[in-house]
Amino acid sequence: MLVLGIDTSCDDTGVGVVELHPDGSVSVRSNRVWSQTVHANYGGVMPELASREHVERIDAVMGDALAEAGVSVEQLGAVAATSGPGLVGALLVGLMYGKGLSQGLKIPFHATHHLEGHIYAAASEAELQPPYLALVVSGGHTHLFDVRAEGQYELVGATRDDAAGEAFDKVARLSGLGYPGGPAIAEAAKLGDPKAVPFKVPLAGQKGYEFSFSGLKTAALLAHRAGAKPEDLAASFQAVAVKSLVKTSVRAANDLGRNTLVVSGGVAANQALREAFLQTGLRVLFPGKGLNTDNGAMIALAGAAAIRAGRGEHGLGDGATAYAPLANVEGD
Ligand SMILES: Nc1ncnc2c1ncn2[C@@H]1O[C@H](COP(=O)(O)OP(=O)(O)OP(=O)(O)O)[C@@H](O)[C@H]1O
Ligand SMILES: [Mg+2]
């Protein structure tokens, strides 16, 4: 069965097609993303501009995704679209487009949680068999979930303040490395000394599994004002951010007895982060190429998992939601 996935939660118009095979395995047939540039001059995403751009682009991105997959719209067996969390106006575009398609084609619709999509992005590489831990490190989240069974998420830790990706973006901006900050920091870090700026690992010694990046951001600003080279700042910041994410996640995995860890979201594209996680001795799974940051294929992968688990159509009557906790075992 071919499943179409749509994500318009923020400033990327993403459409992808995955194939759910009779043996339950999945393969990504296509993944097309239009990354909006219209926000470049505003220092952040302008919600109304994002919605308008999704409206203008979604048909073309959909056409490209079908062409890349080599399928026609009539061959689709189900449609999945993100219903939240995200910018409501932006979400509505993809959600209504997906619902319209499902009704026109008379195929099931699956409303999908954006973070579940980020986690299922790793299903492009290996089957996700609970129980496992999932660390979502993106522009808006640094959330560690214990996935006890398929579709059951317990939040075991999260950031107290900034998300990891947000901190990469802000440190890049304050040191003049440009936008998007994650890739800019990673590039500059290759030329810098990770020991040049003596950042402290946040929340060292905590018993829980929380994260914090705002103190690091302030320390980076002070180091910048004191004349640290941007490359050294980038290397030192990346090193301490990676250390914090790895240490806390590994401690949680050991305490909870989990030996598989999914690391997903935009920051999971970071090479230093990947290398550090791969040295932990845990079985660590990352999304495939192009599936770390927002995209439609990850939503199709989550939809395919729901179909495989026998979940029928759901969310056809749902609206778009800005705030939508994923954890259903304990409060998020
Ligand atoms: N190579 C990299 N190293 C570090 N960070 C990166 C890298 N590539 C991208 N990022 C960061 O990933 C973030 C974007 O990821 P993503 O698209 O998953 O987030 P988002 O969708 O904006 O947030 P959320 O999913 O939480 O709503 C940005 O903050 C960006 O700086
Ligand atoms: Mg995202």
Keywords:
single chain; 332 residues; alpha/beta; Nucleotidyltransferase, domain 5; 2 domains; 5-stranded mixed sheet; 9 helices; globular; binds adenosine-5'-triphosphate; binds magnesium ion
Describe the protein's architecture and organization:
Helix content is 38%, strand content 20%. It is α/β, with parallel strands linked by helices. The protein has two domains: 141 residues, 2-Layer Sandwich (Nucleotidyltransferase, domain 5), CATH 3.30.420; 154 residues, Nucleotidyltransferase, domain 5 (2-Layer Sandwich), CATH 3.30.420.40. The chain has a five-stranded mixed sheet, with helices on both faces. Strands 8-7-6-9-10 form a five-stranded mixed sheet, with helices on both faces. Helix 3 crosses helix 9 and helix 7 runs parallel beside helix 8. The mean pLDDT is 96. The structure holds adenosine-5'-triphosphate and magnesium ion. Adenosine-5'-triphosphate binds next to helix 3, helix 4 and helix 5.
Overall mean pLDDT score? 96
Q: Give a short account of the largest sheet.
A: 5 strands, mixed
CATH-defined superfamily of the largest domain: ATPase, nucleotide binding domain
Silhouette: globular
The second-level CATH architecture of the largest domain is 2-Layer Sandwich
**Which secondary-structure class do the elements indicate?**
alpha/beta
How much helix, percentage-wise, in residues? 25-40%
